[in-house]
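Human: You know discrete backbone vocabularies at least as well as I do. Show me how you would write down a chain together with its backbone fold. No explanation is needed for now; the record alone will do.

Assistant:
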Amino acid sequence: MITRKDSEYIESKLIKTGEKALIPLFSELIDCVNEDYGFSFFNVIYENNIGDNSPRLYLITDNPDDESKYRDSNGVNFAPELQELIKEKFHEIVSKSDKHEIDFNKENLFICFGEFSHIARIETFWKIPNDLKGQFFSDINKDSDFKIQPLLGGCGLLAIYEDIKLEDEKRQIKISEEWNDHFITVFKDFDIYGYIQRDGIDIVFISREKYQTESGNDLMNFYR
């Protein structure tokens, strides 16, 4: 999943809101995987003929911490040992019966993973009225030692400072907690999945000098 228009994201929203239910086989699979390996998977999508005509089994979590567990040691590819374990468990469950709601092709099955809450939290923030978001940024900018502006395309903010004393980590943590508390208070009524209350707002602290060096005072350049 990369955007809110991806089919996997749209289907996962239906699972989250209870508008669609997993078939029993998939429920059994994620119950086993979550219990055995400590994941928070809530959706499974099976597709035939992906890429090189191999089937794909896509397990989707809503816990960002799971990503480090389903990636390899380099943090780039999926962990092959986990893929193999899940593939074996899936074959075991499918083999219990000859009748299934889906015609499964178990040959060359590719196991992959995705995280739902990152996109859902951003989409939630996008749907909040602009005047309310503007008031939030106005509130935290008031009497602040930082120049604060929204991060593009996400649920976050950039806090630019000039005073070297503001590099103090403990002070930044305290300020982050205060801003997050206010963020949750203001937007909790829009938080249909609970991710705003769980994860808060992303905050990037950066010195004016570093910001100027990296972006030339242009926020678009900051992302390049």
Observations:
- Residues 169-187 form the longest helix (19 residues).
